[in-house]
Write a structure and sequence with these properties.
Structural class: alpha+beta
Helix content: 25-40%
Distance between the termini: 48 Å
Order of helices and strands: HEEHHEHEEHH
Strand order of the largest sheet: 3-4-5
Strand content: 15-25%
Largest sheet: 3 strands, mixed
CATH topology: CBS-domain
Number of strands: 5
CATH superfamily: CBS-domain
Shape: globular
Length: 148
Protein backbone atom coordinates (compact mmCIF):
# COMPACT_ATOMS: atom_id res chain seq x y z
CA UNK A 1 0.00 0.00 0.00
CA UNK A 2 1.26 3.51 -0.82
CA UNK A 3 1.42 6.45 1.59
CA UNK A 4 -0.96 8.42 -0.63
CA UNK A 5 -3.68 5.93 0.32
CA UNK A 6 -3.39 6.54 4.09
CA UNK A 7 -2.09 10.10 4.54
CA UNK A 8 -4.12 13.10 5.62
CA UNK A 9 -4.42 15.48 2.69
CA UNK A 10 -5.95 18.52 4.40
CA UNK A 11 -2.90 19.96 6.14
CA UNK A 12 -2.70 23.41 7.72
CA UNK A 13 0.62 25.17 7.28
CA UNK A 14 2.33 27.66 9.57
CA UNK A 15 4.45 30.55 8.38
CA UNK A 16 7.87 31.12 9.96
CA UNK A 17 6.63 34.61 10.86
CA UNK A 18 3.56 33.35 12.75
CA UNK A 19 3.73 33.73 16.50
CA UNK A 20 3.91 30.76 18.86
CA UNK A 21 0.46 31.78 20.10
CA UNK A 22 -0.88 31.60 16.53
CA UNK A 23 0.61 28.14 15.99
CA UNK A 24 -0.71 26.91 19.35
CA UNK A 25 -4.21 28.18 18.55
CA UNK A 26 -4.20 26.35 15.20
CA UNK A 27 -2.98 23.16 16.87
CA UNK A 28 -5.70 23.46 19.52
CA UNK A 29 -8.41 24.06 16.93
CA UNK A 30 -7.28 21.09 14.84
CA UNK A 31 -6.48 18.90 17.86
CA UNK A 32 -3.04 18.16 16.46
CA UNK A 33 0.49 18.49 17.75
CA UNK A 34 2.42 19.40 14.61
CA UNK A 35 2.31 21.88 11.77
CA UNK A 36 4.50 21.98 8.67
CA UNK A 37 6.19 25.36 8.18
CA UNK A 38 6.38 26.89 4.72
CA UNK A 39 7.75 30.12 3.32
CA UNK A 40 4.98 29.96 0.67
CA UNK A 41 7.32 28.33 -1.82
CA UNK A 42 8.63 25.27 -0.03
CA UNK A 43 8.57 23.29 3.20
CA UNK A 44 11.23 24.76 5.48
CA UNK A 45 10.46 23.22 8.85
CA UNK A 46 8.09 21.61 11.31
CA UNK A 47 6.80 22.96 14.59
CA UNK A 48 5.36 20.76 17.32
CA UNK A 49 3.58 21.44 20.57
CA UNK A 50 6.75 20.15 22.22
CA UNK A 51 8.85 22.75 20.34
CA UNK A 52 6.57 25.46 21.71
CA UNK A 53 6.79 24.13 25.28
CA UNK A 54 10.42 23.02 25.44
CA UNK A 55 12.23 25.32 23.01
CA UNK A 56 9.90 28.24 23.56
CA UNK A 57 8.41 28.48 27.02
CA UNK A 58 11.19 26.62 28.85
CA UNK A 59 13.77 28.91 27.25
CA UNK A 60 11.85 32.01 28.29
CA UNK A 61 10.30 32.91 24.95
CA UNK A 62 6.84 34.41 25.09
CA UNK A 63 3.75 33.87 22.95
CA UNK A 64 4.90 36.61 20.56
CA UNK A 65 8.10 34.75 19.61
CA UNK A 66 7.98 33.44 16.06
CA UNK A 67 7.62 29.94 14.74
CA UNK A 68 11.07 30.38 13.14
CA UNK A 69 12.55 30.82 16.64
CA UNK A 70 11.66 27.28 17.73
CA UNK A 71 10.83 25.16 14.67
CA UNK A 72 12.87 22.20 13.56
CA UNK A 73 14.45 23.07 10.23
CA UNK A 74 15.90 19.62 9.50
CA UNK A 75 12.75 18.31 7.82
CA UNK A 76 12.36 14.58 7.41
CA UNK A 77 9.73 13.58 4.87
CA UNK A 78 8.49 10.78 2.68
CA UNK A 79 7.13 10.65 -0.84
CA UNK A 80 3.48 10.00 -1.61
CA UNK A 81 4.38 6.94 -3.68
CA UNK A 82 6.53 5.33 -0.95
CA UNK A 83 5.44 1.98 0.44
CA UNK A 84 3.74 2.16 3.86
CA UNK A 85 5.88 -0.59 5.35
CA UNK A 86 9.09 1.18 4.33
CA UNK A 87 7.87 4.49 5.77
CA UNK A 88 6.80 2.84 9.03
CA UNK A 89 10.22 1.24 9.40
CA UNK A 90 11.93 4.58 8.66
CA UNK A 91 9.75 6.41 11.17
CA UNK A 92 10.89 3.92 13.80
CA UNK A 93 14.54 4.36 12.89
CA UNK A 94 14.40 8.16 13.05
CA UNK A 95 11.96 8.16 16.00
CA UNK A 96 9.26 10.34 14.46
CA UNK A 97 5.51 9.87 14.89
CA UNK A 98 4.53 12.06 11.93
CA UNK A 99 6.09 12.87 8.57
CA UNK A 100 5.17 15.40 5.94
CA UNK A 101 4.39 13.78 2.61
CA UNK A 102 5.69 15.38 -0.58
CA UNK A 103 5.25 14.76 -4.27
CA UNK A 104 8.28 13.85 -6.37
CA UNK A 105 8.63 17.55 -7.23
CA UNK A 106 8.86 18.18 -3.45
CA UNK A 107 5.49 19.89 -2.98
CA UNK A 108 3.69 19.21 0.29
CA UNK A 109 0.68 16.98 -0.39
CA UNK A 110 -0.15 15.63 3.07
CA UNK A 111 1.03 14.30 6.40
CA UNK A 112 1.18 10.75 7.71
CA UNK A 113 1.24 9.56 11.31
CA UNK A 114 2.16 6.21 12.78
CA UNK A 115 -1.53 5.97 13.72
CA UNK A 116 -2.57 6.40 10.07
CA UNK A 117 -0.29 3.52 9.19
CA UNK A 118 -1.41 1.33 12.08
CA UNK A 119 -5.12 1.42 11.25
CA UNK A 120 -4.63 0.58 7.60
CA UNK A 121 -1.95 -2.09 7.67
CA UNK A 122 -2.64 -5.70 6.78
CA UNK A 123 -2.16 -8.43 9.39
CA UNK A 124 1.24 -9.44 8.00
CA UNK A 125 2.42 -5.82 8.31
CA UNK A 126 1.21 -5.29 11.90
CA UNK A 127 4.47 -6.60 13.32
CA UNK A 128 6.37 -3.93 11.39
CA UNK A 129 4.12 -1.20 12.79
CA UNK A 130 4.56 -2.58 16.31
CA UNK A 131 8.33 -2.57 15.90
CA UNK A 132 8.24 0.98 14.51
CA UNK A 133 6.08 2.23 17.38
CA UNK A 134 8.40 0.57 19.90
CA UNK A 135 11.42 2.22 18.26
CA UNK A 136 9.70 5.62 18.16
CA UNK A 137 8.78 5.32 21.83
CA UNK A 138 12.25 4.26 22.98
CA UNK A 139 13.73 7.04 25.12
CA UNK A 140 16.68 8.91 23.69
CA UNK A 141 20.02 8.49 25.42
CA UNK A 142 20.32 10.54 28.59
CA UNK A 143 23.51 12.54 28.86
CA UNK A 144 23.71 12.42 32.67
CA UNK A 145 22.15 10.05 35.17
CA UNK A 146 19.31 11.26 37.34
CA UNK A 147 20.28 11.97 40.96
CA UNK A 148 19.26 9.22 43.38
Amino acid sequence: MKISEVMTRDVRIASPDDTLADAARVMAALDCGVLPVSNSERLIGMITDRDIAIRGVAEGLGPDATVADVMTDDVKYCFEDDDCDDVARNMGEIQLRRLPVVSRDKRLVGIVSIGDLAVTMEEDEEESIGESLAAISRPAAVSAPFPR
